[in-house]
């Protein structure tokens, strides 16, 4: 089996297309986060950015997202090392930390749906910000946690 670009290139060596393909489409980074005033700890919510399609887990206006949502963070090879709210399952974070992509990542599995089938995405768990109400009512821990490993039989099906 030949090595893949994500196994041989540093993040800053990847083409734009390679960089973009690292996004697994989980949508976890598009959930609103709070920051504790005293400890600076990240507090995760299940409230999705208004541009996130919570079924496909993709941005509805990716090319213009930063114009429409000014605090939308553009990930770069330099910034992924400093952003403390990227989920531990995030390909950008994992590669920056020298870790491999996980089995359900579309680049590994060859299928975009495996991120949803594995229960990694926000599909079925996110609330649209336009109907959510106060973020404090939607605090959850799962976006900042490594997804539970599914049984092998679930992985194969």
Give an overview of the whole structure.
With 157 residues, the chain is of the alpha+beta class. The chain has one domain. Helices cover 24% and strands 11% of the residues. The chain contains 8 helices and 5 strands. A hairpin with a 4-residue loop joins strand 3 and strand 4 (58-59).
Cα-to-Cα separation, first versus last residue = 23 Å
What fraction of the residues are assigned to beta strands by DSSP? 5-15%
Largest sheet: 3 strands, mixed
- In spatial order, strands of the major sheet run 1-2-5
Q: What's the helical proportion of residues?
A: 10-25%
Mean pLDDT: 92
Low-confidence stretches: 151-157
Helix/strand-derived class?
Answer: alpha+beta
Radius of gyration: 16 Å
> Domains counted in the coordinates: how many?
1
SS elements, strand count:
5
The total of helices stands at 8
The global form is globular
Order of helices and strands: HHEEEEHHHHEHH
Question: What's the structural blueprint in terms of helices and strands?
Answer:
Elements: H1 5-8, H2 16-21, E1 31-35, E2 42-48, E3 52-53, E4 58-59, H3 65-68, H4 91-96, H5 106-109, H6 114-117, E5 127-128, H7 129-132, H8 152-156
Parallel strand pairs: 2-5
Antiparallel strand pairs: 1-2, 3-4
Structure described in brief:
The chain has 157 residues and is α+β, with helices and mostly antiparallel strands.
Keywords:
157 residues, alpha+beta, three-stranded mixed sheet, two-stranded antiparallel sheet, 8 helices, 5 strands, 11% strand, disordered C terminus
